[in-house]
Structures are given as structure tokens and as C-alpha cells.
């Protein structure tokens, strides 16, 4: 079969010398397919393995084929209560992840848009100072100041609360910066026309600027949702109460069980949980790809 | 600021208050607190602290474990940055070139962006597991005895591989959009001037992509320094032991496991300075970048 | 409808740059005044101060009988058409036109009626439910005009409204704007850098340069009596030839030795500048002035001869039926062709 194809291509290439270029395209596709497989195969293996029982996985590692324990594993991952206090299951963690992802995205967008609006559209001497104060927060990721942040949260009694989980993550100015960049690119004349049309600050914001920013808001929402959903270190520190665990935070629990080695670890359930933890953000990114890419690549300009 | 900006004062301040309050409480306060505690030594039982000057810093320069983490971080960052950039660039150039299936490739190469680092780490643990990991088994057929969590460099290799894998999509997206931003006319002019695709890439495309590349370099260094926390933590299974450790992970381990607030804070401050330097570099570059466009 | 009066209006930016020097302008009711000048001359700043989009540093601005210095743009009863149209991209044509009226609290039926009237006037009736992105450049321009009309303002402000259109559409819209303004009888201020637009549209022209008013006058005055070398070379295409020369009080002589017999001379003696419009010259083999033609440019209706007069560059514009060729020839000046300016400031003598 391969021989036939090749000889046909060879025949064509003698007939039309220009067809040679096609080999280059074949090479390009081969590289791209290899890249796509590199991305795909590990995740596929986890997915396939989530259909196997723990003993096989324990003996043979991750699987390429499918078995019939899928329902079992996902059922256990989603509905079986686990942890030290038996107070958390997959559904609870899924809900917490959603609350973190959506709460973080919405909070960040609202706070960021408001601040960016004030900085760009008002003749405020204090705005430059505010901008620099906000901009500085881009410099130091939460990971750098993790311990003092934790102390502050404990001091404020916000440990094991959604507020303590979400609000400190908002304390970086990515969204503010993003909206500032976007507002600056909005033509000057729009605010001028609106002012002649009798729109004040509130009306201009609601009637003109927010509708204009729709795409930007969507892009930001996707990026921030994924970012919030995937948070690990902060939830690990701030939530010791298992009923507040997110899926990603739950991964840590699995890993600890994994290293105990006392009983056969629940590999199938772990694989199922990993799949559950990655599915929502992956779907969001794939389905809203163009917004996502736009948001990501335009935030740096 | 816009030419015809509004003149009100109270309203914009009202708009700024939420952002400013949040960063004051959750950014400036902790950052200041970190700087302050880096000059104090905490009593292990939580009874007060003593001012020790720069002792916490000098302790770092002599600590063997800290220095080994430092050098590991340098190697880790270099390798992760180089390989994730190189692979992503290759893929982006090809994806930009192919006519058929370009969109499908884009999707297939970027979706891993959405996977959380610890989830990627979990996959790494399963693939590299000492006894049953598929990659471990593959390596043993070549006669290599791979031992995750036991052999320092074996563990490091797993961390690096997973970190590269996780970062390729972001780099790919930026390189691809950078390539697509190169004007058609420039490409066409190059096609007329130069027949060789390879030298066209190095003479024309690569320099035009340099701004994107430099921006990504900073992004990748930041990623390798901070965002790989989840990967490192899952691969060492939360039990650092003698495993390789990045600087950020050590801040966490010394601060939360070791209860050494002063030492951990000093490490935080060192990292802050590092990031600050990176930012200054980026800023100087960004200014230049304006001239590019 | 209203007259407009600028009394010593001036603009200084916080960084100390004086964008507009104190200026005095009176615009009678119903007049269309064009502000023209090169980019950065302050013409837009002046217009924006009238609109209230830019604060007035000094002086007073009257629209009608009211001092408007500190009145919000929306309350000045003006309408403005912007260079890039500044249409709200997410609103339909009808919503775009009606937004100002809605903010004034007019009832919906009245807004709809006014929008319909304006749309009819501008041939936009079929497009009322479209978004700006679905319109052509000329149509967007009309919507911007419509937005201005529905407000029934006392004063129209135009900020280079035609410069984003192609040449053909520009000519057409120019005529439409003029017709509309005359029909509505609304006072208008119009900013452009295009001197043809200025000449054809204006009742009166204000020529600005480097933040200063160089001249105010009707298009004919500006053309035939330019107040300075700047106005002389800015207004008119091809521009006026400007020579350096001297005057002894009776006769002017170009540097290079050629005397302009019978063209008169300013009373000021010494160094001067001498201007001659390219179209104020006739080829005349028996004429007094030798002209060396280097290049002949064909423009269809006209023909431009470029060459040397008394060793200085000189251009002549001829009708298409007059024969022309390169090489030496002679020219004669039409009566009143020669303008005199002082050597330093370039003011008319």
C-alpha cells in the first residue's frame, strides 16, 4: 500500500517537477502531527487508564486500551466521600472549582475594568500614582509573598472562606492592565462624541464602553477562569477544611495517598479525577479559542 | 489618559477604591511584612521574634541546601525555557506554513494550556513512576534504570520534561500570532529576494519575531521560577526529602514545614529582587519594542 | 442659530506649550468659516475649545449671547462631525443618531421622527437598522452628519470630516455639506488642511500657522491679497513663487539681477520677498523677462512649466492650448501679478 502511494507520487513528480515541493509539506505535517501527539498521548493514556481497575494500573502502569471500570472509577471520583473527615467528594470539589474560577474571573474583571476606566478616562492627577501602585503588583507573583500573605489572611480570620480563597488572588493587576491597554486603543473621538451627545461618566461607561469591550471581557473571562480554576498553591494553604477543596487542590490529597503506600492506591479514581479536573478548562479554551487567543496575545501589547 | 477626559474627582476615586484596597491589604502589606520579617528571627514556639539584621541573608549564602536549590533553579529555568521555546517555535513555523489543517493543528497544540500544573505533574508521576511508569519501562528496555524520587537527576528530568510539555502551548500561541503579524508584503519581498526557505527564515522571519521571542523569554523565566510549583510539588509527592527543589518551592518548604519565617522571608525578598531585575530588563526592552512597530 | 465670538481665546498646555495664541474671531449668524493650516497649527485645538472638549486657558468664548467657557460640551447646543466619524460601533444607525436626543430626555416618538427626517435628508432611510461596520465610508460620513443634524444645533463643528474619504467621494460630500449648511442656515466652523476644500466651502477662511491666525478673509481676498508669504504659499495650487530680492522704493529687483520693470515697488527699501502666482504669467516671445524652462508637466487642463527666473526656481501654469516646450523663452506678467513681502517676517507690504 505504502509502495503504491510512494511510486504514484514519484511518477507524478517526474511528470511535474514542481510537485517536489510536496515533500516539504509532508515533512511539515509530520512534525506537526508529532507535536500534536506529544500533547495528546499522555492525556489520552490518563483517560484510557481511568477505565481500568486499580490492580492492573498498579502492576502495569498507564494503559493504552480501554477496560470496563470507567463507570466505577468516575462514580467513585465524583460521589464517594473521601479525605480524613469524609466530608468531600468530586462533586463538592467541582462546585468549589467553579466558584473559584467564576468568582475569580468576575471579581477580577469588575475590579479591573473600574480601575482602568478611572485611570484612562478621568483627568485625575492621582491617577498616575494609582497606576504605578497597581502596575507594581504585576511584578511580584503571589508565590513570592506566599507566607506573609498567609499570615495576613489568618490574622483577618479569612482562612477556610471563599473570600480568603478568591480575593487575595485578585490582588494582581493583570486585568486592570489589560483593560487599560484596550481603553487606550479606543478612538479618542468616541468619548468626545459621547460628551457632545450629553453622556456623563456613568452613561458613557454603561452605554458605550462596556458594550464596546464585550469581546475583551469574554477573552479576559476565559483566561481568568482557567487561571482561577488551575490555582494550586494558594488553595492548598488557605483551605484546610476539606469541604472547601477544589479539584486541583484535591490532586494534592491523591498524591499524598500515593506516597503513603500503605494500601493499593486508587489509581483508577485518581486518573478519573485528573480527567474531571482538566475537562472544564480545556473545553472552555477549545470552544472559545479565538477569544482566548486574542485575550492572551493582546494583553502584552 | 484621553484628551477629553472627564473632570470629576470623586467618581474615579470611587472606581479605584476596590482595586487599591485589595492590593493594599493583599499585596503591599504582605510584601512589606516579608521584607520586615526577613530581618527578624522567629522563636520556634511562636513567642515573639528578635531583630537579627541581615543574618537571615548571610545564612542563605552559606546554606548548602539553599545554594543547591539556587543552582538547580538556574539549570531548570534554562532548560525549560530553551526547550519549550525551541519546540514551540518549530511547531509555530510549521503551523504557519501549512495550508491544510492549520486550524486543527492550532487547536491540537494549544489545548494543554488549560491543564493545571499539578494535574500535569500527576500525569508525570504516573508516567515516570519508579516501578510501573510507562516511560520508566521504556527506558529499562534500553538498559537505563530510571528511579524517580531516588536519583536526584532522574527526578529533575521528570520535572523538566513535564514543565516543558506544559509550557509549549503558550509559546506556540504567541509565536504563531507573531508570525501571522508579519506583513504579507514583507514575506513576498523576501520570497523574491531569496530562494532558500531556511535562510529566509533566519534572515527575515527570525529577526522580525525577535520582539515576541524576547517577551516570551521573560514569560518563560517567570513561568519556570514560579508557575512550576504545582509540578514540582506533585512530582516530589509533597515530600521534598533530598529531591531537587526550585527556589519558590524552598520558600514554601522552609516557611511552612520548617517554620522559619525569617529565613523564608529572606528567600522571598531575594526572589522579589530577581523578578524586579527581570522586569527592568523587560521594560527597557518594551521601550525599544515600540520602535519596532 | 447663533453668532460666535472668540475674544482673546488662547490655549496653553500644562507643559507650557502655547498651542493657540490669543485670537479674536467674529462669526456672524449662518456663516461657514473654514479654519485651514498645516498639521499642528492649532486649528483643531481652536475648534475643540469651541466644542468644550479642550479647556480655554484665557479669553472668552460666546456662542449666541452666552459665555460658554465653562459649559459642558453637551450643553453648548453644538454638534460635531469627526474625522473618523466617531460612530458608536455597537449601535445601529438610528441609535447612533438618536443617542444625544435620548440623553436629553426626549420622548421616543420624537426621537424617531427627528431621526427619520434626517435620514430622509441624507438618503439613509434604508440603513437605519444597520451597524456602522456594515456601511461604506461615505455612508458613515452621512450618519455622522445625521447625528449632528438631529440635534438642531446652533453651531456645527466639522473636524476634517472628509479626509478619510477617497478623492471622488470627497468632492461629492463637500458639495453636500455646503448645500446642507446653507439649507439649514446653521453657523458652522470647519477645520481642514486641504486648501481646495477651504476655498470651495468657505464664506470666510481663517488661515492658521504655528498657533497664530495669519489672515481672516473671504476666499477671494485670501487668494488675491495674501497677508503673508505663508498664506501666499499655502493657499493656491501650485503655490505662489516666492523670490528673494531688493527694492529701492521705485523698482524691485530679483536676486540674480533681473528687474521687474513696471511692476511697482513697495515704499520699503532694502531686502524684500517677491511673490508671483504661476497663473499670473503669460508666455510672450517679446516679453521682458527671460525664462529658462527645464521641465514641462502635463496636468490635462493645465500645463506646468518649471524652470529658472533670474537664477531662482520658478513655475508657470498655462492653459492646455498654449504651446510649451523646454528651453529658453520669454514671459510677461499680468497686471497686479507681483506681491511684495518683507524679508524677515514675510508680512505683506
UniProtKB/TrEMBL annotation, chain A:
Keyword Repressor found: no
InterPro entries the UniProt entry points to: MetI-like, MetI-like_sf
A single BP term in Gene Ontology: transmembrane transport
Gene3D superfamilies: MetI-like (1.10.3720.10)
Residue ranges annotated for the ABC transmembrane type-1 domain, each copy included: 94-288
One Pfam family matching this protein: BPD_transp_1
Keywords for this protein: Cell inner membrane, Cell membrane, Membrane, Transmembrane, Transmembrane helix, Transport
Main location (coarse class): membrane
Cell compartments where the protein resides: Cell inner membrane; Cell membrane
TM annotation in the entry: 29-47, 98-119, 126-142, 162-183, 204-227, 270-293
Cellular component, GO annotation: plasma membrane
Membrane association type: Multi-pass membrane protein
Family stated for the protein in its record: Belongs to the binding-protein-dependent transport system permease family.
Role description: Part of the ABC transporter complex UgpBAEC involved in sn-glycerol-3-phosphate (G3P) import. Probably responsible for the translocation of the substrate across the membrane.
Cited PANTHER family: ABC TRANSPORTER PERMEASE PROTEIN MG189-RELATED-RELATED, SN-GLYCEROL-3-PHOSPHATE TRANSPORT SYSTEM PERMEASE PROTEIN UGPE
Subunit structure: The complex is composed of two ATP-binding proteins (UgpC), two transmembrane proteins (UgpA and UgpE) and a solute-binding protein (UgpB).
Name this polypeptide is given: sn-glycerol-3-phosphate transport system permease protein UgpE
Annotated gene: ugpE_2
From TrEMBL, chain B:
Alphabetically ordered keywords of this record: Cell inner membrane, Cell membrane, Membrane, Transmembrane, Transmembrane helix, Transport
Record-linked Gene3D superfamilies: MetI-like (1.10.3720.10)
Entry membrane topology: Multi-pass membrane protein
GO biological process: transmembrane transport
Keyword Iron-sulfur (UniProt): no
Compartments, record wording: Cell inner membrane; Cell membrane
Any one GO CC term of the record: plasma membrane
Protein's job: Part of the ABC transporter complex UgpBAEC involved in sn-glycerol-3-phosphate (G3P) import. Probably responsible for the translocation of the substrate across the membrane.
Protein name, as recorded: sn-glycerol-3-phosphate transport system permease protein UgpA
Organism: Roseobacter cerasinus
Lineage: Bacteria, Pseudomonadati, Pseudomonadota, Alphaproteobacteria, Rhodobacterales
Gene that produces this protein: ugpA_1
TrEMBL record, chain C:
Protein name as annotated: sn-glycerol-3-phosphate import ATP-binding protein UgpC
One GO CC annotation: ATP-binding cassette (ABC) transporter complex, substrate-binding subunit-containing
Alphabetized Gene3D superfamilies for the sequence: 2.40.50.100, Nucleic acid-binding proteins, P-loop containing nucleotide triphosphate hydrolases
Annotated GO biological process: carbohydrate transport; glycerol-3-phosphate transmembrane transport; glycerophosphodiester transmembrane transport
PANTHER family associated with the record: MALTODEXTRIN IMPORT ATP-BINDING PROTEIN MSMX, SN-GLYCEROL-3-PHOSPHATE IMPORT ATP-BINDING PROTEIN UGPC
Record's keyword terms, sorted: ATP-binding, Cell inner membrane, Cell membrane, Membrane, Nucleotide-binding, Sugar transport, Translocase, Transport
UniProt keyword annotation of Aminoacyl-tRNA synthetase present: no
Similarity annotation: Belongs to the ABC transporter superfamily.
Record has Iron-sulfur as a keyword: no
UniProt domain ABC transporter: residue ranges: 4-235
Organism: Roseobacter cerasinus
